[in-house]
Amino acid sequence: MTDERHDESSGRLPFADDGAADDLFVWDGLRPPPRQADPEPGRVPGESRRSRAPHESRPSGDEGALPPRRAAPARGAGDEWQDWLDPGEGAQRGEPAAGDGAGGPFGPDALGHVPERRRPRRRRLSAGAVLAAMLIGFFVAGLLDAKAIETAVKGKPLGTARSVQLALLKPMVVLSGALQLDRPAEALNAMLGRGDAAHHSIAEVKNKAKPKWPRKITRKHPLRLYIIGDSMAQVFGSSLENLAEETHLVKAKLDYKVSSGLSRPDFFDWPQRMIDQIVEFGPDATAVLFGANDGQNVLHKGKVLEVGSKAWQEVYAKRVGKAMDILTKGGRRAYWVGNPIMRDPNYRERISMMDHIYEAEAKKQPGVFYIPTWALFANEKGSYAEYLPDANGDPVLMRAPDGIHLSRAGGDRMARAVLEVIEQDWGMPQQP
């Protein structure tokens, strides 16, 4: 056996003889696998050793040596190195590698037959088709609730944008009614008590010979209290409703409408709503909180009046006075609640202007009490405050993050102040 050693001058790597370990892969750093030795005499280059006859054996000096391993086909070192780094796209599918039998170490002989997995082809829609489907869906949804959308748009501030939106909505409203697509929405609103029922007239608010006030309030004959307003009345009203009914001397009903007010009867007609509820609920008194949405331009006799102008204040004062007159029919009492101080300076000025109108109109109307809450929500310096001390002197969050609405603690604070006035006016026992 010839002992081949590394020849420093030749640059070749040492190779073992064609013995038991001649085809073991040697990994040494980043060096490529060793070049395969010359084929044995009498064997055709590239011939697989597996093709030998079973009786043929390889000369060996050790009779007890292990059976010879299958040798890889004689290929260039560069080819084997490339196969190791990238077995090829065919090998990933189990196809035979070039010159390596049925797939070699990457073929089906290693793992068995693997059926090809085919994913179902998805039908892709074009961007135009998707957009068209979305537009059709929006249009159908709009037809189903066209009246509600129109009502919401009517509540927006007067201006060009509102006029354009209403003009665009008008054909949809007409088409929705003609096709009766608005019936499901109307049926749902009727089930929830939000439908347009038949209205009552002011003549039905009868002036009885005996006025509602004064009278003795007992558990058997509790005070019927109607609570109305915009979104500010949502928290305040629920607090007043709960605190009043805890006395067992009051039967309260909360009725608020978000984004509403007295400035825009075209969006929500509060005077008509007051008449309907006086006839149906029959309140002895009403607690009122408006103004959060009223600081906007109003439409009067075909002319838009700018908020804060002299003409605007005159029109708004007449609307407030009309509401007070409706609520005090039959000797009823009305408790008009002023708005608290607001965080935004410009918004604060508008709210202050309207609070002065409420106070001035209340002085003209018998049976109306104006209850200011501006200072109730201001700090010691008279400025806006998010936190105020409670009865124990601990700071409590009173306002919502928007600087307008009330927290639950703020609603309770305002409700206690209003309930105290009501109890004093009707001679009810004061609550601790």
Strand order of the largest sheet: 2-1-3-6-7
In the CATH classification, which architecture of the largest domain applies? 3-Layer(aba) Sandwich
- Broad structural category: alpha/beta
The major pleated sheet works out as: 5 strands, parallel
Name the poorly predicted regions.
1-30, 48-64, 90-94
Oligomer: single chain
Overall structural domain count: 3
The number of helical segments is 12
What can you see in these coordinates?
- By secondary structure, this protein is of the alpha/beta class.
- The chain has three domains: 16-52 and 68-91, no CATH class; 127-188, no CATH class; 211-426, Rossmann fold, CATH 3.40.50.
- The chain has twelve helices and nine strands.
- Strands 2-1-3-6-7 form a five-stranded parallel beta sheet. Strands 4-5 form a two-stranded antiparallel sheet.
- A hairpin with a 5-residue loop joins strand 8 (387-389) and strand 9.
Secondary-structure blueprint:
Blueprint: H1 77-85, H2 89-92, H3 108-111, H4 127-144, H5 146-154, H6 160-178, H7 183-191, E1 223-229, H8 232-245, E2 250-256, H9 270-281, E3 285-289, E4 298-300, E5 303-305, H10 310-327, E6 333-337, H11 345-364, E7 368-371, E8 387-389, E9 395-397, H12 408-426
Parallel strand pairs: 1-2, 1-3, 3-6, 6-7
Antiparallel strand pairs: 4-5, 8-9
Helix pairs in contact: 5-6, 8-12, 9-10, 10-11
